[in-house]
Each structure stands twice: as C-alpha cells, then as structure tokens.
Specification:
Length: 244
C-alpha cells in the first residue's frame, strides 16, 4: 500500500497550497466538473451530525466544509478548524466570520494530523475533506483521529482516490498531470505557474478507493461508503468502537 508523503514532498505541496488560497474553490469546481462540492454535500448528508456536537474539521483549508458542518451542529455546537497553514486558517476565519453569534463556538488551531493539539476522547466527530491524501504518515493520522474521538464518535472522510480499475486510474492520472494545470491557469495571473502542478505528485501516492476504505477499517467500523466518477471520489462514514 502506498505510503504518505515524505517530509520534503509535504513541504513542497504545502507551499503550493498557499498559492491556491484566493482561487481554491473556483479551481476545484472547474477541474472536478462540480463534483468537489457535490461530494462534500454527500458526506454531510450521511454524517448524522446534530445540534450541540463537538466536531474537528481536520485540514479545514479555507472553510468550505466547515460551512456545511456549522449548519448541522448549531445551536450549541463547537467546531474546531485545524490546518497546518496559518494562511489557510486566516482565510477560514474570514470566510466563517459571518457565523459569529449563530450559536456555534468556532476555534482555529494550527497543527498536523499526526499530532493534533486536543485531549483524548473530546470529539463527537472528525471530518477530513480533500486533505488526508497530504498526510505524511497515514497510520499515525488515523490513530490521532481515533484518539481524539469519543467512543461511538464518527469519523467522516472525503478524498480523491485512484479508481480501483488500473486503466481508469491511468486515465485520471493523465487528466491530473496534463489537463488540470493548464485548466487551472485560467484563474491565475499571466506568467504565474499553476500551483495545481503539485496535485499529480500527491495523486501518485494516493490510495485506491478500496485501499482507503480498508485502511480506515483497521481503526474504525465502516458504516457507509459513497463513490463518484468511478471511484475518483470516495466518501466514508465510520464509527469508533471501544477506547483509544
């Protein structure tokens, strides 16, 4: 099974991600033919989040998933936005400021999946949307998600995955490597290299849809799996059984 990103690759991807911030969602919508947002809504529909839940948005980015979470957990909920980039947290803070006084306690914390700055068993749910693929150590990240979840807590993941059929995986890889970068340049200033060149680097190390489900199944009980575009998108709902 492919490993997570090595440290040098991770740092390079993080640098590229910083340059995507002003255009992140518009490019995502274009290059995924609208499926990026659609699958976020699928994940939130199967989440069973409720008012008052304490939720971690792990790898929150500019806060696109956070908005959907807030609608589910207010009033009385608590949402912790976690990201390794302070600039992404700043953007999320700006984008979510409209929810001030809406009945949800918002927190913003800088950190990595492999070392989450939260106590044991303090969360009702952990959600990660299009960010797990950038983990340096997938096993350590899943252990941290499990550690911070209460017994019976929900782990919800959405990510890009390689289709299980190799021919389809090669086709998606070609699209990501050769089509996505010039497409994304529509949104960037003339002469600026598209930061979405880094997407193919992470795609090469991505798990297949089945591999991702099986990996999550080592630490949680799988409850539901939803796929789109032949397994290029995989959404998983899983439950923590027992203690950390």
């Amino acid at each position: 099974m492919p490993e997570g990103l090595d440290e040098s690759t991770w740092k390079g991807v993080i640098e590229e991600l910083e340059r995507t911030i002003p255009y992140y969602e518009r490019v995502n919508h274009l290059i995924t033919l609208g499926h990026s947002g659609k699958m976020r809504r699928v994940l939130i529909e199967i989440s069973d989040l409720k008012a008052g839940d304490v939720v971690l948005d792990a790898g929150c980015g500019p806060g696109n998933m956070s908005e959907l979470i807030i609608e589910k957990i207010r009033p009385g909920g608590r949402l912790i936005c976690l990201d390794p980039l302070q600039s992404m947290l700043n953007e999320a803070h700006r984008n979510l400021s409209k929810y001030s006084g809406s009945g949800v306690n918002l927190e913003f914390r800088k950190g990595r999946f492999e070392d989450i700055p939260l106590d044991d068993e303090c969360l009702d749910a952990v959600i990660t949307s299009y960010s797990f693929r950038d983990a340096v150590d997938r096993e350590s990240a899943l252990k941290e998600f499990r550690r911070t979840l209460k017994k019976g807590g929900k782990f919800l993941m959405l990510d890009l995955t390689k289709p299980d059929i190799k021919q389809l995986s090669l086709m998606v890889g070609f699209y990501i490597k050769w089509i996505v970068p010039p497409l994304s340049k529509i949104f960037y200033p003339m002469g600026m290299r598209s930061p979405w060149n880094a997407l193919h680097i992470t795609y090469e190390k991505m798990l297949t849809s089945l591999e991702l489900v099986n990996l999550i199944g080592k630490y949680f009980r799988i409850e539901k799996v939803e796929k789109a575009m032949f397994g290029t998108f995989t959404a998983v709902k899983a439950i923590k059984l027992g203690k950390s």
